Amino acid sequence: MTHRISCPVLSSRITSAAEAVTVIRHGDNVGISGFTGAGYPKAVPTALHDRMVAAHAIGEELSVGLWSGASTAPDADGVLAEAQGVATRLPYNSDPTMRKLINLGQVDYIDAHLSHSAQHMWFGFYGNLDVAVVEVTAILPGGLLVPSSSVGNNKTWLEQADRIILEVNSWQPRELEGFHDIYYGAALPPHRRPIELTEPMQRIGEPYLRVDPEKVVAVVETDLADRNSPFTPPGQTSNAIAAHVIDFLRHEVAAGRMPADLLPIQSGVGNVANAVLAGLDGSEFTDLVAFTEVLQDGMLDLLDSGTMRAASATSFGLSSLGVQRFMDNINAYKGRILLRSEEISNHPELVRRLGVIAMNGLLEADIYGNVNSTHVMGSAIMNGIGGSGDFARNAFLNFFLTPSTAKDGAISAIVPMVSHVDHTEHDVHVIVTEHGIADLRGLAPRARAERIIQRCADPAFRPALLDYTARAWAQRPTARHTPHLLDEALSWHQRYLETGSM
Q1: Cα–Cα distance for residue pair 451/367, rounded to 1 Å
Q2: pLDDT per residue over 83-92, tens digit each?
Q3: Which pLDDT belongs to residue 230?
Q4: Distance linking the first and last C-alpha atoms of the chain
């Protein structure tokens, strides 16, 4: 590891993960690196799990507040959840074990916009950050760190934490040096100045994270892989949704509302998102650029084919094959892929200025266009809002994409009233299912309802939705702006809970 740790001061602090976690105390807030399973610490969480289990066995309390960039992995979130050692969690989680504890009420979960998480911590909204555990690719002299496969909130954690543990992971390619752009021009109000980024690939920072060596209490060596996201080829439903999106973009270009090479693209993760990216790769659109959170396999395909010129993100989210492809050709991607802090990748000012086209998923939408991205049946958290709100509210054009049904047709994604609201009707431009596309821009609520039902709802649910809207209109003669039957609005969800079908 001598080629990875060339700072004499910090090389003297190399220790085991078991020794490193002794600096973490009960009640500490711990900020860890990681975003969509990339760049998270691998050794320290497992060692902390073992310490928590041992403490609990002798009747001692040892739990922490756990902060991250976004989701991590079973060997980070998962093992700490198994140890019953997390009191609070923010700003995003997708681990099933942690999710279960959150929904059981055993972990307090703060589901936050990703663009807010670092600054709210800096504002003091979350309390003191006691310990940061950050994975890096290399440590250079003077406290310069080569970031790894994600950046997330690492800059803020390193600046604000009282004590720092660095994991130096030799699995991460040493050639990652130069892939990052870390902006150090942020300030607290009222001293903020505009972020002078006017093109997606413009560099406004430096390729390294900074750390005060005096705050580093331990350096842990690892050689462990990221949690690689499985890639499933898009199915018929996803491909149908993608085809609607591509046709709509053609329509927007023909109408003169965007250039022929489109505007910068943001894409959420998952099967539908990869299908849209594959659709773009087979279309006439070229010279594309991404300003997004996560670079997944579909975007790597676009870069490899030349359809996409470059991509700015905060993290990779690749499959095992995608990781191998990236590593095999890493030097060819340098200059075409840029990783930034999530306070920049998700910054509302930049999303609006660049005119981003945002594409994200949903759990359900109602007839007026309100969107629920996070809660199953109104109460149980799935993952979290992530960055979808950062992009949707500020995008030039936003899409919310979903299959029209779930659970083999038992659940309709289009309902009379959503059981939880993440994105209000004011922030939703276009809803897409395999059946069609509902462009809601410039429409009053009644017209929105007609378009969503007729074009996006599954045919099996359309008659009931049309019947609901007609009766709401008839029974609320003095409240017809967005009429609802309050005794029925959530009856579909209640019926599912009672019978297993809406």
Answers
A1: 9
A2: 999 999 999 9
A3: 77
A4: 58
Q: C-alpha distances in angstroms, 20 versus 75, 76, 170, 216, 480?
A: 17, 15, 18, 10, 62
Q: Which of 408, 421, 413 is nearest to 482 (CA)?
A: 421
What are the Cα distances from residue 184, in Å, to 202, 340, 345, 419? 15, 11, 14, 40
On whether the CB atoms of residues 371 and 421 are closer than 8 A, the answer is: yes
Q: With 80 as the cut, is the pLDDT of residue 437 above it? A: yes
| Omega of the bond leading into 233 within 30 degrees of 0 (cis) | no
Q: Domain 236-499: which topology?
A: Glutaconate Coenzyme A-transferase (3.40.1080)
- Beta carbons within 10 angstroms of residue 259's beta carbon: 11
Which is the catalytic residue, given 135, 252, 293, 425?
A: 293
At the top level of CATH, the class of 8-222 is alpha beta
Asked if residue 438 has pLDDT above 60, the reply is yes
Q: What are phi and psi of 67, to 5 degrees?
A: -115, 145
Q: What are phi and psi of 418, to 5 degrees?
A: -65, 145
Strands (E), 423-466: 430-433, 436-439
Instruction: Write down the domain spans for the chain.
Output: 8-222, 236-499
Report strand pairing: 131-140 vs 163-169. parallel
**pLDDT by residue (tens digit) across 62-77?**
999 999 999 999 999 9
Sign, Cα dihedral of 364, 500, 101, 378: positive
Q: Is 293 a catalytic residue?
A: yes
417 has pLDDT over 60: yes
Q: What percent of the chain has pLDDT over 70?
A: 100
Amino acid (1-letter code) at residue 266: Q
CA 404 vs. chain centroid, Å, equals 22
Longest dimension (CA), the chain: 77
In this structure, are residues 182 and 207 in contact, taking their beta carbons and an 8 Å threshold? Answer: yes
Are 125 and 116 in contact, with CB atoms under 8 Å apart? no
Written as six digits, the tokens of 318 are 């690749």
pTM recorded for the entire structure: 0.95
Strand runs labelled E in 111-231: 131-140, 144-147, 163-169, 180-181, 209-210, 216-222
Please give the radius of gyration of the chain, using alpha carbons only, rounded to the nearest integer: 23
Same fold? 8-222, 236-499: yes
Is pLDDT above 90 for 2? Answer: no
Residues forming a β-bridge with 182: 206
